[in-house]
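Exam revision sheet. Question 4 asks you to relate a sequence to its structure. Input first:
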Amino acid sequence: MTAAAGTIGAVATARTPYQQAAKALLRETLFGAARDELQSRAWSEITMSNIAGAAGVSRQTLYKEFGSRDEFGQAFVIHEGERFLDAVDEAVRQHLDDPRAAVGAALETFLRSAGEDPLVRILLSDDGTGGMLPFVTTQGMPVVQWATARLTATIEEGWPQAPAEKARLLAESLVRLAISYVTAPGGPPEETAVQAGELLGPFIDRALGTG
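Answer key, structure tokens:
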């Protein structure tokens, strides 16, 4: 390899973190623009041009990054959900000595955080015409799969003795249960968490090898 080729390779390698940072910044800017737009109108009324304009980029840039409006919508919901899953992860880690308590705390944390979030309040006020509810219901598989994978990893790390298929089944059950309660709220989060713990308790014991 020549010195020039080595230099070019080093420059290309050095540029990679910048490119990743630029991509992350672009996405954060676009998601922030969408969040701002949702404060004043429903998702069904927001176009890709609206989002691009609010973010200060071209519509072509937005489409190049996400492909379609639906793909952007799903990515946006997942991005917003990251905050909830971070809180859930922390709640689980605080109760590793008591799996039932960990599951209850995780569900309560998720429901409480979701109930306090402005975007979720917009989602819950959707009567079917707002256009965003399908991203977590009828078109929600990408969201369910992402959240299940996140929670499965947390369960497997906390209870490594748990069989992989049971860890995933427990994670997916919790995700679907949480989405159900968020989109059709019942009682207070702490009451819901207790009920879910009683319902899932025996399976939690078997799945995590603590029963």
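Marking note for examiners. The radius of gyration is 21 Å.
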